[in-house]
């Protein structure tokens, strides 16, 4: 496949390596410094585009891919308040987009088991549930998109929580109400991404944890997603690639 990379930062550069390893060609690299010069015709040389840019750039990049009618895998997080608008535009005009807070295969298995665990824990009110995420200090959004997906998986299956609330450790901290699921965000040097779900009672604690050793898992997953998406039409979440049920 011919691939366009949109965003050539930490993730874009690792995705390039995995794409070449899997015999794809990178036909276009778009970053902040050349974004204004790239034309629709240049983008149309690609069978599929992969965006790992920034929360402030991603919406314009999505519209650019829609204009070129090039299928797009979006890894960038921090824009999901606009998801419904983008979905409508995508479906109305027969474009193709996949989004996902985390393209790692392991994390997608984690998302699935997280829901099953919440369902199993639901009757046992002596446990208090909490989500913790740790990421590197350059991360622009908090909580992480992955932590939000984990929280949503719990809320769907756990009656005593109806919304989530975020505390970034070291900043002003809110006290969660009983029906609020706390997501604690920690920012530490060089951590690619660690997510833990904790169920704590007076007598014990269950910890369910995923630790990314590097960014490679996200990058490989994004290339596999591009391979899956490039000949489809429609609006997808990364979970649509997996057949867990
Ligand atoms: N979904 C996942 O699996 C996953 C995994 C890791 C990171 N992410 C997300 O991906 C995004 C990128 O992460 P990163 O670690 O590579 O960040 P990064 O800061 O290293 O790279 C972002 C790149 O985007 C470029 N950019 C800025 N404006 C642009 C524009 N208008 N058009 C194109 N490029 C532009 C920047 O110059 C930079 O090179 C973040 O939102 C991060 O949270 C998602």
UniProtKB/TrEMBL annotation:
Pfam families: DapB_C, DapB_N. It is found in: Cytoplasm. GO terms for cellular component: cytosol. It comes from the Bacteria. InterPro entries: DapB_C, DapB_N, DHDPR_bac, NAD(P)-bd_dom_sf. NAD(+) binds at residues 32, 75-77, 100-103. Residues 106-241 form the Dihydrodipicolinate reductase C-terminal domain. It is an enzyme of class 1 (oxidoreductase). Transmembrane segments: none annotated. (S)-2,3,4,5-tetrahydrodipicolinate binds at residues 136, 145-146. One of its GO terms (molecular function) is NADP binding. One of its GO terms (biological process) is lysine biosynthetic process via diaminopimelate. Keywords: Amino-acid biosynthesis, Cytoplasm, Diaminopimelate biosynthesis, Lysine biosynthesis, NAD, NADP, Oxidoreductase. Catalyzes the conversion of 4-hydroxy-tetrahydrodipicolinate (HTPA) to tetrahydrodipicolinate. HAMAP family: DapB (MF_00102). PANTHER family: 4-HYDROXY-TETRAHYDRODIPICOLINATE REDUCTASE 1, CHLOROPLASTIC-RELATED, DIHYDRODIPICOLINATE REDUCTASE. This is 4-hydroxy-tetrahydrodipicolinate reductase. The gene is dapB.
């Amino acid at each position: 496949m011919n691939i366009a990379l949109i965003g050539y930062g930490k993730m874009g550069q690792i995705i390039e390596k995995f794409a070449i390893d899997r015999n794809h060609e990178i036909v276009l690299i778009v970053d902040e410094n050349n974004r204004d010069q790239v034309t629709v015709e240049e983008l149309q040389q690609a069978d599929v585009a992969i965006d790992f840019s920034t929360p402030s750039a991603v919406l314009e990049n999505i519209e650019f891919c829609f204009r070129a009618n090039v299928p797009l895998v979006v890894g960038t997080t921090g824009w999901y308040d606009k998801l419904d608008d983008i979905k409508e535009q995508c479906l109305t005009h027969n474009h193709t987009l996949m989004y996902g807070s985390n393209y790692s295969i392991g994390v997608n298995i984690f998302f699935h088991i997280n829901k099953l665990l919440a369902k199993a824990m639901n009757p046992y009110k002596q446990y208090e549930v909490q989500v913790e995420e740790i990421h590197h200090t350059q991360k622009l959004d908090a909580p992480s998109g992955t932590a939000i997906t984990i929280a949503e998986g719990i809320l769907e299956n756990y009656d005593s929580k109806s919304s989530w609330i975020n505390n970034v450790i070291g900043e002003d901290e809110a006290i969660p109400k009983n029906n609020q699921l706390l997501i604690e965000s920690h920012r530490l040097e060089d951590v690619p991404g660690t997510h833990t779900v904790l169920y704590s009672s007076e007598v014990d604690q269950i910890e369910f944890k995923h630790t990314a050793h590097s960014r490679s898992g996200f990058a490989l997953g994004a290339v596999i997603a591009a391979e899956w998406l490039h000949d489809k039409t429609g609006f997808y979440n990364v979970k649509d690639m997996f057949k867990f049920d």
